[in-house]
Amino acid sequence: MSRIIYCHYLKKEAEGLDFQLYPGELGKRIFNEISKPAWQEWMKKQTMLINENKFNMMNPEHRKKIETEMVKFLFEGEDIVIGGYKPES
């Protein structure tokens, strides 16, 4: 049976994540407040962010930038601005 949570991103009840995907206190918050569909939206944005900015995930500064953008996207309602990307009209 799936876990139902109130998703902070979607602002409604939705299926929760199966397990904690991110370490630490932020990971606990994501597990408790972010749904599977919201996490999938973030994964798409994260992939674009990494690819367009040529981030190296071994670089601590790049990982910190990704984490900052993740918090803004999931919890603060800010969309990710990706240089060079133009959404389809």
Question: What does it look like?
Answer:
The chain is mainly alpha-helical. The chain has a single domain, classed as YggX-like. It is 49% helix and 9% strand. It has helices at residues 24-33, 36-53, 60-75, and strands at 4-7, 12-15. Strands 1-2 form a two-stranded antiparallel sheet. The chain is globular.
- DSSP summary, beta strand count: 2
Structural class, by secondary structure, is: mainly alpha
Strand content: 5-15%
Give the overall form.
globular
Please tell me the CATH architecture by its name: Orthogonal Bundle
The SSE string, one letter per element, is EEHHH
Helical residue percent?
A: 40-55%
Overall domain count: 1
Give the tags.
single chain, 89 residues, mainly alpha, YggX-like, two-stranded antiparallel sheet, 2 strands
Topology:
Blueprint: E1 4-7, E2 12-15, H1 24-33, H2 36-53, H3 60-75
Antiparallel strand pairs: 1-2
